[in-house]
Amino acid sequence: MVRCVNFKHVTEKMMKIRNLTLDNNVFLAPMAGVTDLPYRSIMKRFGSGLVFTEMISANGLFHGGNKTYELLHSLPEERPLAIQLFGGDAEVLARAAAKVAPSADLVDLNMGCPVKKVLRSGAGSALLREPRKVAGIVCNVRRAIDRPLTIKIRSGWDSSSLNFLEIGRIAQEEGADAIILHPRTRAQGFGGRADWSHIRQLKEGLRIPVVGSGDIFCAQDALDMKAQTGCDAVMVGRGSYGNPWLIESILRLQAKKSPTAPSPQNRHAVACEHLHLHLERFGPQRTLGEMRKHLCWYSKGLPGSASFRAALNNSPTIADLRSAVDEFFLASTG
Ligand SMILES: Cc1cc2nc3c(=O)[nH]c(=O)nc-3n(C[C@H](O)[C@H](O)[C@H](O)COP(=O)(O)O)c2cc1C
Fold first, then answer.
1. Res. 2: pLDDT tops 50
2. Rounded-to-integer distance, Cα 63 and Cα 69, Å
3. Confidence of residue 132 (pLDDT cuts 50, 70, 90)
4. What value does the mean pLDDT of the chain take?
5. What's the pLDDT at 5?
6. Which residues line ligand 1 (CB under 6 A)?
7. How far does the centroid of ligand 1 lie from the alpha carbon of residue 175, in Å?
8. Hey, what CATH topology would domain 264-333 get?
9. Computed over its alpha carbons, how large is the radius of gyration of the chain?
10. Which pLDDT does position 13 carry in this prediction?
């Protein structure tokens, strides 16, 4: 088991969203294909105040197979848990929210995903072009659940239609409890820089809490985002890849302590723990397919990481994968 510090005593501030009190205001972002149960468990142990599932299809909860349901699987240790839904139909989203609410501490609606398949179904950031539909969705979902309800948006469809403030206000009026903003447009994808000034404008324009998401890659970034925008919480996405210490470091820096610098031994221990959790949850075949990227991320910045990647790709069994991990990190330890 990975030892983890109890941060309750060092957090700068607790946070409340509706009736949900969170230990701190450093959240793990929803990331499809990444923030599965093992990943969330690790991030939780490193102190994240709220972890989000991958986006889950509202339609899939009624017409999909087991795969959709698998995404809902959670453990008591990772609570509080936010379940994120996506969909384009207010009625379906409301029914889906009612269905998942007993397993969730908060329900979040995805209104930012730029992926074509999602847009074609009228979901994700396609909703940013239809403010009235957003109103209908938030209103319906609000009526269906009494759990905290948030929406996660981008700044707009493209640079000529920046409407995050309009969407935020609509959601607030219809009963959303907080807004999460990734300040890039749908057209930007992940290019350029997240424009944190949009987070500040949203914070200044709303009564409900605002959560900032985008480009937090070191602990100082999180403090800078909070200082520059006044946001109530920060959300960490790609910066957490192979780096749960980022969450720990943000909490430490907020408490005026120095950030954590993980040693190769620390990385080795957490990589093995992650591998173990994944294997336990998903079995060898999926673990072989999915853990390679995580293991590469744990090796980032250490000498020999390129040949480590090759060794992982040439590991046909879990035993081989494990040997490659041990060999790499033991060599890094020197
Ligand atoms: C691989 C990947 C998957 C993502 N999946 C989702 C998702 O399912 N739902 C969502 O709202 N945002 C999703 N996002 C966006 C992130 O939640 C976050 O807003 C974005 O990556 C910006 O934060 P970052 O710079 O800290 O990564 C995803 C991002 C990445 C990189």
1. no
2. 11
3. very high
4. 95
5. 44
6. 29-34, 54-55, 84, 110, 112-113, 152, 182, 213-216, 236-239
7. 24
8. 1.10.1200
9. 20
10. 62
Instruction: Return the residue whose CA atom lies nearest to atom 14 of ligand 1.
Output: 31
Judged against a pLDDT cut of 50, whether residue 3 lies above it is answered with: no
Query: How far, in Å, is the centroid of ligand 1 from the Cα of 112?
Result: 9
- Alpha-carbon distance of 216 to 27, in angstroms, equals 11
**pLDDT digits over 268-297, tens only?**
999 999 999 999 999 999 999 999 999 999
φ/ψ of 209, rounded to 5, equals -60, 150
Q: Which of 206, 213, 322, 222 shows the shortest CA–CA distance to 273?
A: 322
Instruction: Give me the active site residues, please.
Output: 113
For ligand 1, atom 26: residue with the closest CA: 237
Return residue ranges of the chain for CATH 1.10.1200: 264-333
- Tens digit of pLDDT for each residue in 83-126? 999 999 999 999 999 999 999 999 999 999 999 999 999 999 99
Tokens matching residue 295: 């293991």
Distance 182 CA to ligand 1 centre (A): 8
Q: Specify the fold of 9-254.
A: TIM Barrel (3.20.20)
- Secondary structure element (H or E) that encloses residue 86, with its range: strand 81-86
Orientation of helix 219-229 relative to helix 245-254, angle to 10°:
50
* CATH 3.20.20.70 in the chain, residue ranges: 9-254
Nearest ligand 1 atom, CA 55 = 8
Angle, CA of 113, 72 and 128, to the nearest 5°: 20
Helices (H), 230-263: 245-254
**Helices 37-45 & 264-299 angle (0-180, nearest 10):** 140
Report CA(90)–ligand 1 centroid distance (Å): 23
| CA of residue 125 to ligand 1 center, whole Å | 13
Minimum CA distance residue for ligand 1 atom 31: 238
Pocket test for ligand 1, best of 26, 28, 31 (most atoms within 8 A of CB): 31
pLDDT tens digit sequence for 134-155? 999 999 999 999 999 999 999 9
Ligand 1 site-directed mutation target among 238, 250, 293, most atoms within 8 Å of CB = 238
